[in-house]
Design brief:
Elements lengths: L7 H4 L2 E3 L3 H19 L3 H6 L2 E6 L1 H10 L1 H9 L22 E4 L4 E4 L5 E2 L11 E8 L2 E10 L5 E3 L17 H10 L4 H13 L3 H23 L15 H10 L5 H19 L3 E3 L9 H11 L5 H21 L4 H4 L5 H15 L4 H13 L17 H21 L9 H14 L11 H7 L2
Parallel strand pairs: 2-5
Antiparallel strand pairs: 1-9, 2-6, 3-4, 6-7, 7-8
Helix pairs in contact: 2-5, 7-12, 8-10, 8-11, 8-12, 9-10, 10-11, 10-16, 11-14, 11-16, 12-14, 14-15, 14-16, 15-16, 15-17
Length: 453
């Protein structure tokens, strides 16, 4: 088993919604291809006269509703997910005008409507495939094939793992991670911190600053969401609900059902911000961006957790996300929503247990319970928009995370029969067996039922 070398800040990224694989990945692809075109020999740039972009698989099936054309165009124009303004994609929502792309000495005219929605079924290595071509007439001057593999991660044909430091405590499974914890008498957050420093070269202050920025961005999404009203973008005309749920929770003084309503409200809030194309944190994806912010908000503002406890919990959550990505997938196009909201719920359950001071075994048990009860969850967005059932599904994922934490922290940890490695393996197998129709194509499930109504 190869060791995990993913950084916390690769897994948890800031960028615009509504879908990490359909907006953040394509935005990066557009940016990268523009940079590559500008580096071409002068003679190639001068004879170029057109740009051809084709998107395949899930990108083709649901890319319009997910904002993929707007994301690609914004990338071509120099925007990047982690530095763009929160509503950058809004600039391209209703634009009818073509854009001028300057490739250093040559201007190409391109419009979001020129993007070709190609085959949903194909034989490329990943469902979310994009092909960018710079052309002169019918001749291709330069091309690159990209794969948006989930969570905003971008790969391309010929991509190789970048050189980075070796983790201080290499592991590829939960069993290997536990061996390090026990053999070295080290706590989970300390191990993740040491690995992050070894892999990235960052010091502790830089890691903490990065974590604080992620936490602040998640909190901001919740704060904006609970005070926003109106209808979400797109043809579904779905009304925002977070503010209504939050008002009810306040009336109930956040007690009893009011506490549950608060968790729901916070998950709805961040998810509705994501559905609006505003900036969120891929936790681990945009489609699941409401789960972890919800439990962070609950823990910090209702249960009195300190910033250091939040940081430590977030590092524990990252460890769970690493394992799921490494041994299965966090891409809805690969394994369905069990890889998005399911993984987010497992991460959130681990976050809660660890931030509340429970030992590692309780943290693992909480993550496993949450994961186990999302197995088989399909990805079937209505009309391709990350709204139905996605927003409510985030709230359900947050509630399941909280309940998984309660179960794990109440029962004797030795009662647990299923470990996290087994649950992740089951998720991977279920994803392989799941029909392509149920993996972010909107060709089956609730998406199909709604179109038949």
């Amino acid at each position: 088993m190869t060791a995990i070398t993913t950084s916390i800040f690769e897994l948890l990224k800031i960028g615009p919604g509504p879908s990490s694989s359909h907006t953040i990945g394509p935005m990066k692809a557009g940016y990268d291809f523009m940079e590559l075109m500008r580096k071409l020999p002068e003679k190639d740039k001068l004879k170029s006269d057109s740009l051809e972009i084709r998107i395949f698989g899930s990108l083709s099936a649901t890319g319009k509703g997910h904002g993929t054309p707007r994301a690609i165009m914004s990338g071509l124009l120099g925007y990047l997910p982690d530095t763009c303004h929160a509503d950058t994609l809004e600039e391209f929502r209703e634009s009818e005008k073509p854009f001028e792309l300057d490739i250093d000495g040559k201007i190409l005219t391109y419009h979001t409507g020129d993007i070709i929605f190609d085959a949903i079924k194909h034989d490329y290595p990943h469902s979310n495939t994009m092909i960018f071509r710079l052309k002169s007439g019918k001749d291709v001057i330069f091309e690159r094939m990209y794969f948006s593999v989930g969570g905003g991660f971008l790969r391309w044909q010929g991509w190789e793992e970048p050189q980075r430091g070796k983790p201080a405590y290499p592991y590829g499974t939960m069993a290997e991670l536990k061996e390090h914890l026990e053999a070295n008498s080290i706590r989970l957050h300390d191990l993740i911190l040491k690995n992050e420093k070894a892999i990235t070269g960052m010091d502790e202050a830089e890691v903490n600053a990065g974590l604080d920025h992620l936490i602040e961005t998640m909190e901001q999404a919740v704060k904006l969401g609970i005070k926003s009203d109106g209808v979400l973008p797109g043809p579904i005309k779905l009304h925002r609900k977070a503010h209504v749920m939050y008002d009810r929770a306040k009336k109930e003084q956040f007690q009893g059902s009011g506490f549950i309503n608060a968790i729901n409200a916070y998950a709805f809030a961040a998810s509705e911000e994501n559905a609006s194309g505003h900036c969120v944190v891929t936790a681990p994806t945009c489609g699941a961006a409401g789960v972890i912010p919800s439990v962070i908000f609950i823990l910090k503002y209702h249960m009195g957790a300190s910033q250091e406890e939040i940081r430590q919990g977030l590092m524990a959550a990252a460890a769970i996300g690493f394992l799921c990505k490494h041994n299965a997938s966090i891409s809805g196009a690969e394994v369905g929503c069990q890889g998005e909201v399911g993984v987010a719920s497992a991460m959130a359950a681990a976050f809660l247990a660890y931030a509340r001071g429970y030992k590692f075994q309780v943290t693992e048990n909480a993550a496993e319970i949450a994961m186990e009860h999302h197995l088989g969850l399909t990805c079937d967005p209505v009309l391709g928009y990350v709204q139905l059932p996605c927003i409510e599904r985030n709230a359900m994922g947050a509630i399941k995370a909280y309940n998984a934490y309660l179960i794990a922290s109440t029962l004797d940890e030795s009662y647990q029969k299923v470990d996290l490695d087994k649950a992740i393996a089951a998720m991977a197998q279920t994803g392989r067996d799941m029909s392509r129709k149920y993996k972010e194509t909107s060709l089956a499930g609730l998406a199909q039922s709604m179109t038949e109504c």
